[in-house]
């Protein structure tokens, strides 16, 4: 290369890897040296029984590995112009980084309005009052997503993105509002002169919401005087519709105040423009420990809003949840009779069909366990609890007697003390009259009782008054002594009473704890029994207990931030059960996070091992000749192409097998399910016939959906589809839980067999004698690609399977479309008797078309399943390409590193100074990685956002290892002061 002086047979650069002796290492020895270098890596050691500690080691090592890969790129980019072979290594690093996935798990909180979801979210974050919540009313009006804040800016400790509904969405809602307030339509829709109370209440609620956005609208009359066009183009409204707004603040209190107007439906003024009705989503970013490793908390609003845009966002989030937390207020009383009502049956069935109705993906949270209830009555109603509390109850009774006796004992002393104090005051006044005489009409001088003796001794008293003074002083001293003794006795009695009352407090707290625990245990048992029953209906066995957490979130936050007075039954933070909930949520992420981290670490280790011979420039003294390479390399390359072809065929066969499983196991059961569910449609319509005529009419007008004035959702299409899903649930579950994973396992095993076959073909080549060690190392590297292929194919399968599990939702819009003519006909009915005509229309339609309706729904589901499963073949091909490309890289490097130049058979090769410099720099980078992996010191991993002088984009993570620290060099840092309102990691219902 021009400008570089070539050197022949240079001495090898001093490397970071162990040397067996002073001679050059061949590739096989290098592989062993690499393994030795990383043998002390902490993440490889499984000595700890603490799963979270093991995971922490792996994730810390992965952060360092990612930083090292980026450092490798920077190092090689500095030399790539003079060392062109570096580009292939850079490309492979980019591919590894691209395959690394950030772990994210969405945890959603579902529950009725006022159940305490928001307070629980605040408690899990450990940040009091972050999200607005007020006892006694619904607060959260929009979906709120809370994720980790990666910003290091002290003025952006708290960030938010407010997403507004679109102009079209707001226009649709306004049109509905105008239709509701149209008096002419209201008159035509009346039924037998009965007033439409549903419409009246609905209009009132609508008007309240409109006033929040448009304060100038005072009444229905003022609303009718305007138009949808006018309201859409209102200055304050049109500026924000369809847009987003960012908020960044360093203070928690300022941030909470800033976001309240976008989240809190009660944060409105009659005179000011309120924005919450126009907001459909708020994304919040804070530095809470529970979020640091990929957990995102989603606070979903209760059933208090009819906004279609917000409902759509909520439904989308529910589909994406990894963990669903059902929140219910324990005050309502939960037993075997109503446990099944905690989870609305459509939501419950959707979770089952989504594959999320299991111990890993579902939990129940019973909120407000600290709310007081009538414990004596509760004990009386539960005889077993009365027996458990009998000793404590008796102890309280005995203590009450002791207190009564002490009160009796103290009464004489109280009476005596009162008389003695009066006597002391009277004597003191007589003594003052003697020692400080005053003229008639003047006021007596005030002298404290404590000064009497001193002033009497100093006073110049006439001789004729001295005997009287001495007599008075004697009485005064005696009265004071008697009063002091009475006070001491009363103080002793009060101390004894205080000790007894303290004992009573702890006894009562113990009783309260037993009552709370008893109520909690009954509720937990009822919920778990219903869960087990549901699993049986699904054809699944219960593995472990469902997690149910009775929590006191408000107390947890109160106890965390101040020395609050302890509430009976809750003496510690642990008693609130929020720490248990937090630990479980984090625990659900451990297996997947560990799998992600280890797969990445293994790939980095394999890459370093693969790159090492090129880095060291240490080639064996014996190499294959150009002639041997000329004959051998094309054969190996052809074999790689053949492997790629076999894997491609295998991917198509696997996808075909999965299609056959759906056809045999699932689709074959559909006709019977359609007949059964179709027969139930008319029965379901009979239930709707019992609704108020106005609600029935509105549900028809809404094409099978209506959110009434009482906050109830009428989901007719979902209810109809529910009957079909319920019939198919057991086979649906077994297909996705058992049969399809078996097909994946078969595919993975056959793919590994092909890779092993190729590796054997390579190692069995007759040319291997001269480069045996290098060939053995390449053979081992190729066998390792089995792990890469397994990991990627499993990941691809799970991604597609999750989408396929959600395809059952396609039935609802298909059924809605099928029933639209019926709905529209009923919506057009007017006048006297229209309700009966609509009910008759439903009965006739469902009796005739019930089965056909479900057939249309199933067609939509089958179409979605087919399309999604077809993508499986493409994703498997991508996995195969990644694997074969890596194998081809191994083969290319093998021939490059183990072939002589030209016609020479000598292993000596000309190496440029640029390559020597690059090798030295990379060896230093690799040694830094090995050093960190051996120490795994979290102090050495720092989150940084640096600007790199490099043209490559989108390959750098914002977290890097402090390399200077690893090398022992000092590095200046800026210490950010914690905000006075909030400290990271602080321990901490709507």
From TrEMBL:
Q: Which residues form the DUF7605 domain?
A: 679-841
Q: Which InterPro entries match?
A: DUF7605, Dynamin_N, P-loop_NTPase
Residues in domain Dynamin N-terminal?
A: 107-351
* Region of interest: Disordered: 1-24, 966-990
**A Pfam family assignment:** DUF7605
**Gene source species:** Cudoniella acicularis
> Which Gene3D superfamilies does the entry mention?
P-loop containing nucleotide triphosphate hydrolases (3.40.50.300)
Q: Could you tell me which SUPFAM superfamilies the record lists for this protein?
A: P-loop containing nucleoside triphosphate hydrolases
- Renumbered to this chain, the Acidic residues biased-composition regions fall at 974-990
This chain's protein is named Nuclear GTPase SLIP-GC
